[in-house]
Amino acid sequence: MYKRFRDGLLIGQSPTSASNMGKIIFYEDRNFGGRSYECMSDCPEISSYLSRCNSCRVDSGCFMVYDRPNYMGNQYFLRRGEYSDYSRMGMFESIRSCRMIPMHRGNFRMRIYERENFGGQMMELMDDCDSIMDRYRMSDCQSCNVMDGHWLMYEQPHYRGRMMYMRPGEYRSFRDMGYSNMRFMSMRRIMEPC
User: Within 10 Å of residue 4's Cβ, how many Cβ atoms?
Assistant: First the structure.
């Protein structure tokens, strides 16, 4: 049976579903050596396929990679490109899970709160914020509600330090999520053509 294509799309396939496709290839060793595993969606446990993961290549899309299973631990945002050695990033010994980030078209909106369970001062963001202290005089952010879009939150101003990926949903306590020692001080929208 033949499949019919027009403009690179399977007939009947919408352009948005094609643009949301991502592909990442994980390798056991640095510099793309050893066995490999190709992934095109979320993967909660890479060790089911590889004993370790020390390099990867993102062929398309954007991904968050984590140094613990089930999307936990330190995380890092990867866009299309080659990542030959995680130790150069200063974050990982090995990748244990990954999450594909879908492309978002439309508005971005997130509410950040000074305290857990949406308590204390609240501010609504619709664009990037390089310092919640400078812009809003907020010294801390301990919960948030992401209404639209996909965001990265950083522990230091100006998008530096460790990061956390936030997709639409309510996040009542960063401490309960395992981020008790982190303070999030800047946020940016994920607008790359993922």
Answer: 8
- Residues 193/87, Cβ–Cβ less than 8 Å: no
Condensed to tens digits (0 to 9), the pLDDT of residues 12-24 reads: 433 334 445 799 9
Are 156 and 128 a contacting pair, CB within 8 Å?
Answer: no
pLDDT in tens, 62-100: 999 998 999 998 899 999 999 998 777 665 668 999 999
Contact predicate 129/144, CB 8 Å: no
- The DSSP symbol for 116 reads G
Q: Is the pTM of this model over 0.85?
A: no
pLDDT digits (tens, 9 = 90+) for 132-185: 999 999 998 999 999 999 999 999 999 999 999 999 999 999 988 887 778 899
Strand stretches in 30-176, DSSP E: 33-39, 55-60, 62-68, 72-78, 81-83, 97-101, 109-115, 119-125, 143-148, 151-156, 160-166, 169-171
Rounded to 10 degrees, what is the CA torsion of 72, 97, 63, 78? 90
Q: For residue 71, give the nearest of 95, 37, 89 by alpha carbon.
A: 95
Nearest one of 53, 98, 56, 106 to 81, comparing CA atoms: 56
